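Review box. Two proteins, two foldings.
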Amino acid sequence: MSGAPVRVLLLGPVPYAEALRVQERCVAAARAARGPAPGPGARAVRGPAALPGDSAVRGGPGAVPAESVVLSEPAHPVYTWGLRGAPDAAAAAALRARGAGLVAARRGGHITFHGPGQLLAFPVLDLRRRRLPLRGYVAGLEALVLRLCRRLGLGAARALPPPFTGVWMGDSKLCAIGVHCGNHITSHGLALNCCTDLTWFDHIVPCGLEGKGVTSLSHELGRHITVDHVLEPFFDSFQEVFDCTLDFSEDPGN
């Protein structure tokens, strides 16, 4: 690939809140790498700190890529929602009683579930530098997952026309997509069900879509597919779709 490098932060199984924390540090580093664009007479403002262990976030010897992708597997069950679809008090209490956490997230979309057996991918990309509109970026995430599915032998997976997002098998969603974009820097991203316990979705209307189901790679392929199994095809597909090289870091941003 000839494109700019994108740093990979592979967290493994961690609490959802930890993945969010690392993501926010990556967003801060991406904004700092871009630098301010002050007008005449504007006061200089110190940018946010880079990720720990980084010698630099801009170009030059020892610099790390400004763009990142944070990969994790939620260690515990959690329900999250975006700008819409927050559960009322009674529904929230019922979900907590089942042993799940509840988190409001700065992304688009309604309530959904994250938990063990699911790949969470939070790309932190600069859409302005890439000259990529937000809708084109969402389509890129869908294309990434479709390529991954084909690599695993699941050629029937498809994306639906707007307003639907994500990747589907028939009327069942295999991969949910919910993104945030602030100052052209992306955050949040996709959740791909690998060997997720799908019964957690029975207690909500996933993504606010009545009459639609959810599925997983393991269910569709008839064999146990873990998050580790999909990492290599994810990396290959990410590089192809976003025209980049992946830079693997030992520092998870802790």
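Next protein.
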Amino acid sequence: MKNVVALVATAALAAQGVSAHYIFQSLSKGTEKGTPYEYVRRNTNYNSPVTDLASNDLRCNLGGATGGNTSTLEINAGDPFTFSLDTAVYHQGPISLYMSKAPTTAAEYDGSGDWFKINDWAPNFSGGQASWTMTASYSYTIPKCIPDGEYLLRIQSLAIHNPGAVPQFYISCGQVSVSGGSGGASPSPTAKIPGAFKATDPGYTANIYSNFHEYTVPGPSVFTC
């Protein structure tokens, strides 16, 4: 009987751990919620994070190396888009957006090329303590000046809510076909993934509960047109 009780307790704790996670499921034009996995590559680890800084899964999550049955969203440079989740983000940490131009089609691209960052949702310290943007959707715009073509559009939540433990990356990649921009820019700086994030980065090792008054988001600086 004791063994049964122990097994039930263990299962309950495991379920709690899974329910404490989240995943970016959909990508859409504008600010509306899209259809799950229509334009977002489907991962194979449910809503669990990636924690290995050397893993190729940091690009587009476990199971996201290729497009599979994922469609590619046609969008104009300068237009807004929205990533939506199954449940709101509730682990503290920055949210970042990256893009990487596919050599051919986004569906065939494994993300092994150069990535550039287009936005960070970093903490706001204006109220005397850190305030994080923790919502069920994140909207931004495609940079107006990037070349036309197909891209992976990557969103990342870096969860640093548990100082001393390994930080968690919640990642999804959408597939987009961009047109109509000025196309004159060569986005920089760029970084490879894995490689963009290091265990010694202050934004990776930060203790958000102790003397936390400033923060630098890991990865390259944000590219602007």
